[in-house]
Amino acid sequence: MMNDPAHAKLRTHAGEIFTGKNLQRRFGRQKDFTMQFNRKTSIGMGLALMAAFMNSFIAILSKQLSSANLNPSSIAFYRASIVFCIMLLVAYGVNVTRAGGRPEKPAAMASIGSVKVFAIAALFGLFGLFYFETSAYKYEMASNVVFVMMASAAISSLLLESSLKMERITGKKILALGASILGLLIVFDLAHLRNMNGVMLAMAAGTSYGLFSVYLRKQGVKASMHFMRNMFFFGAIYLAIPATIDGFSAVKPAHVPAILALAIVPSLLGTLCTMKSLEYLSASRVQTIELTEPIFVAIMAYLMIAETPGPTQMMGYAFILAGVFCMNSPDRTANT
């Protein structure tokens, strides 16, 4: 009976479970997962933090241009059109370099499916974000606009990803998002909301940004010069409509530095970093990381004008960072 082949096979299998080789194989898989997670998450977090840093310039530059009597629709249009022109020049320079001094023939026209992706991404990520955000600064304090917009983006991206079954809502994610939003509440003074128009516009901008992030993730879009150029082309067309209705604001030489900085730093580089981070992390994780934007504002204020945050603000920053790290801690059952 003891020499029965079935019993021998069972004993062999039971022995393998507790052998050093089997345990090493199991722990090896766990180690490989952890290393892959750390590498992938670190790259995504780094890119999202860079996007948050660059986006921290938006409020200051937009307020500066608005105070110079440039209307919001014109500011938003100039942002998109300048980036599109920059991308055209970069593409031309790359083509000339590759062709040995003469530009290559234009590439074949994009497919209808590609055009649809460009158009929808531009609708959410450029028209919805740029126009509503810039308009919100006209009615409400910059800090309040930033809070409402960022919270709306993080919440909308998490809910939409869950509804599309791209990401599972877990207690950890709710706790992480709640901690980050609580940190924002502590940092910003929302007791002095001045105008509900500004709040609603900021919510529209944030929700549009969240939709943009989820859409790019869902489509598997890779950040590339080709995609950026076409997306900003459609964005400039969309934003030209309200700018034409409101009337284009005249640009004076004194406005040029701020407009160029607004176009290059947050609009071009910030958007690029956000798109690249979505190749490594889910949209809800990227949006939660970008809630660190006020921390970068505080750092710049300290370095440039020696403005030191108080204990209450420091506590708020701690909550934001705790939420970010909690959202991006290893979770084998969730999608990254």
- How would you spell out the order of helices and strands? HHHHHHHHHHHHH
The span between the termini is 51 Å
- What is the typical, i.e. mean, pLDDT? 80
Extended strand count: 0
Provide a concise account of the structure shown.
Keywords: Cell membrane, Membrane, Transmembrane, Transmembrane helix. With 336 residues, the chain is mainly α.
Report on this structure.
The mean pLDDT is 80. The termini are far apart. α2 (20-55) runs antiparallel to α10, α4 crosses α10 (256-277) and α5 (112-139) packs across α9. It is globular, with a radius of gyration of 24 Å. With 336 residues, it is mostly helical. The protein is built from 13 helices and no strands. It has one domain (53-327). It is found in: Cell membrane. Pfam families: EamA (PF00892). This is EamA domain-containing protein.
Search tags:
single chain; 336 residues; mainly alpha; 0% strand
Secondary-structure map:
Layout: H1 5-17, H2 20-55, H3 58-67, H4 72-98, H5 112-139, H6 142-163, H7 171-187, H8 196-219, H9 225-246, H10 256-277, H11 283-289, H12 293-305, H13 311-327
Helix pairs in contact: 2-10, 3-10, 4-5, 4-9, 4-10, 5-8, 5-9, 6-7, 6-8, 6-11, 7-13, 8-11
InterPro entries: Diverse_Substrate_Transporter, EamA_dom, EmrE-like
Main location: membrane
Domain EamA: 43-188, 197-328
